[in-house]
Amino acid sequence: MEKNYERLRTSARKRVVVFLLTCCLVCTHTILCASIYGQKRLDIVLNDILLVDVLKYIDTQTEYAVLYRSDQLNKIKLKSVSFKDATVDEVLSFCLRNTGFSYQINENTIVISKRVGQKDVLPQQKVIRNIRGTVMDQKQDPLPGATVIIKGTTIGTVTNTDGKFTLKVPEDMKTLLVSFVGYKSKEVQLGVADSVTVVLEEDVVAMEDVVVTGFFERKKEGYAGTVTTIKKEDLQKLSTGNIFTTISTIDAGFKINEDNVNGSNPNKLPDFTIRGKGSFQNGSTSPLFILDGFEVSAEKIFDMDVNRIETITLLKDASATILYGSRAANGVVVIETVAPKAGQLRVTYDFKPTIAFADLTGYDLMDAKEKLEYERLAGLYDHTGDLNENYEKDVDYYSRYKNILEGVDTYWLSQPVENSFSHAHSLYVEGGVENVRYGIDASYNQQKGVMKESGRDRMGLGFSLIYRIKDKVTIKNYVSYAYTKAYNSPYGDFSIYGRLNPYERVRDDKGELIPLLLNGDSNPLYDAELPGRDFTKTQEFNEQLSVDWIMGDGFRLRGQLSVSKSNSETEKYTSPFASQYVLEQRNPETGTQEYVPIEKRGELSLSTGNVISVASNVTLNYNKLVAEKHLFYLGLGMEVNTSNNRSNGYRLTGFPDDRYSDPSFAIQYKEDTRASSSESVTRAIGFFGNLNYIYDNRFFVDGSLRYDGSSQFGADNKYASFWSLGGGWNIHNESFWSKTSLINMLKVRYSYGITGNQEFSAYQAKTMYKFQVDRLYGTLIPATLMGYGNPDLKWQTQRQSNIGLDFGMMQDRFRMTFNYYRKRTKGMLTSITVAPSLGFSSDSFTANLGEIKNVGYELNLNMVFIRDRSKDLEWAVFFQGANNENTLVKISNQLKGINDQNNANKTTPGAVYEEGQSMSAIKAVKSLGIDPVTGQEIFVKRDGTLSYTWDANDKILCGDSEPKWFGNIGTNLFWKGWNLNMVFKYSFGADYYNQTLASRVEGANPAENADRRVLNDRWTTPGSHALYKNIKEYTTTFISTRFVQKENTVQLSSLSLSYDFPREWLKKYRVNTLRLSFFANDLFRLSTIKEERGLSYPFQRSFVFGLNVGF
After folding, report:
1. What GO biological process, any one, is recorded here (predicted)?
2. Within 10 A of 333 (CB to CB), how many other CB atoms are there?
3. Does 58 lie in the same domain as 47?
């Protein structure tokens, strides 16, 4: 096995080396190409031509931009110009001789100016000033390649790599115009001094006033869709260790459903929705994720370095998501990564160590004395007529009592958990000139879970290159490698420890772990210390290329291509000496421990997966302003995607020893299993278009159409169309609206559209067969029917409407956004149960079965109470609230059958599929509580009569687990570099079936530990009023309204404090930026109900420290 590991490590090293060499080759190739391009040779044969025509020829045929004053050169003629394979220097030297002008080449700019000592052709420009200056950004970083021009002329220069320039300026010209791509142009008035410092501001219009949809960019003021934009600065204020939790903390509309089973498991993706569920349990409710223009999995976003993110845009309604057509029903999350900036080499390093503690406040278990007393009261040791049985009971009781007297009181919940330490590192290197920019990103994140030896390691490496040609064509290339290793705790399911008895010893007198406990249960600590492994490793290589051509006259063409390949390997090994293979008896002769037969001992599960995805799209944009009032945006596009997924796996048993855990040492496949493999291919194509019209910045209309084709649906329904139409009114831009009004923004908008969902299996519409390799028919391999195909299977569609209001006053010191939406999903896909006579080996017939309706609203309020720029002080408060009501409008008879199966469940509420009801509704038998006379629970039957007998047919709808109102409340205080941020999450009005009361209090098994409330409020004698049945009646507790409770919660989800050091102070140490930060997550949680939280994996409280430094 060690050889195998060594082979894997060697292979991994080779892949990394190949990857790095590829990056170097790509970079070198590009630089060489740029160099060769800069040395381009010219062939010119011209007679009687103006000098400016030659300069224009050089400007168009080379990469150089030629700057000159046309009024000085347009009268200079050249008799003949003849060159063969000449350099630019040779041509310019010849053409400018005897003209009184000279040239200067700086980077990719040629500046033509008068020679020193020459008289200017304009008499008023006799005195020349030599102006020196520096151009930098707001962070005091120099901007190389910035253009500096004398206003009103073409005379100018460009800054060097240090952002410095020198320019000869006529004395009577007092204004310079400074510009740089991505920054606002600035006019500089020249005074008496001959040196200037110019600070340019970033042009943040694209971030604040433009909506990024992934395909097109639209002016926000004329956009009808519902979007939320999260900027890099917003992400830096939070550090939850989970990008999805961070998004949910910023926008409550991105709702994460609390997972009470998996808690804070670092290897479990959270369950999240945008505006309710639109599918049954077998369909995805997760939104679509778009990363730099391409669809990616939620797991990729889960594992990516948050420092790479520039913006996150949540697209919520049909008008916003329609361009993604059949994939947009659950919303779209568009993520744009940081692009390298031109300038000197800049290095940014981010370090975040994290300390986490298990949150066990939801548990209130009995100690050793209480647990033994509970067993006694429950009658476990009551004597009967059998003397031998009575003797055994006494022995059991006193052996446990003896342990208690000796001080045994094991708190089992603390055994598998630990205070974890994690650390994350991120490095980003960027630089270049305006035409060629590069960026290198590297990250490593070792996230440890609070259960021992669990965690998730992530590593990423990427290289980006941006090449611009004359501000017309931009070529972007990004190649990356990502590695993830998720490892699960060998201590098993956390719920096991909540059931173990506290009077049990962990180790024997020799200090060795006890494999079997007093009641015969396995000791999970014994298994945890045995050699074993349970991990999943994933590697992904990705190549992204885009070409953006600004064609002129408002046209822009963009093409994108992405190729990714991922490999995954999952391995789980269980030792042959694990307690599950231990027999209770020992060898009578040797006294050694005996085990089950060797061929059944130990287990190794191995599975591998390979996914190759290719995605491409082409878009054409056009914008035009007509008569200063009519603004048109037109976009057309095409998208093609394909994905090939292969996997295989097997389970082996019969390992003689932990030293021989390689598959070759296994004796056999696990009983009733064989090696398995699968392959699936999905292909999709889409055509889309968008038209946006804005009249005088007052009225706007937005329409989109998409036509999709997919291999996942029936032969008769492979294609479908989707569309949306929206409009709005910017009332604040009306002439009758007072410009001095306190209200500076008032906008109403409405949209309606049809989107779809295709997050389903690849071959759901096809008839599937399974080969029976263990049942040969002669020399042939027979195949059995797995599921019958459905050629009529249609696309699941969703009709959405949204009405919104955007309001701002006092220069946006108070802002409000309100949205009311209605969503109706038709043709929902689900697997249905079919008759056994059809010969299916599984219930795999897929059909369009019903309709779901979601109705809700969202409210966002932002209030800036203090804004004093002179004191560098700002205090703001925000409030977010949302509501969603889910209703099943129509279901089929087959789905009603599934509902009948769920309804028969006796101990836990199941999904409710009833027309007119919510999918999150709770059904239980109505209860009047415990009868004081008999101690039995009184149930109310459907006809109103009372009964002591529980009947599933008497279940009624008694609540809904969806809250009536949920959201975030937070505040932000900024003062002189200090930033304090606090966010509370709240949820009100949800109904909750308290499973802790049902199974860990009243229905508790006295042989296991339980909630301390098991000892209180029990019925004892006739006439006693109690919440729970007699303590000796520990039969199964069936579902009743007695345990349905109203849940209201408030929790401090995030608290952060950061400080940005002053730049003036940092300059002394040649540091550009320095930020220290502290984050605390999930500090406390208040709830109206008491329950055990984190059943299979506990929740956690984490504290994160941050260091961010830039050079």
Report:
1. iron ion transport
2. 26
3. yes
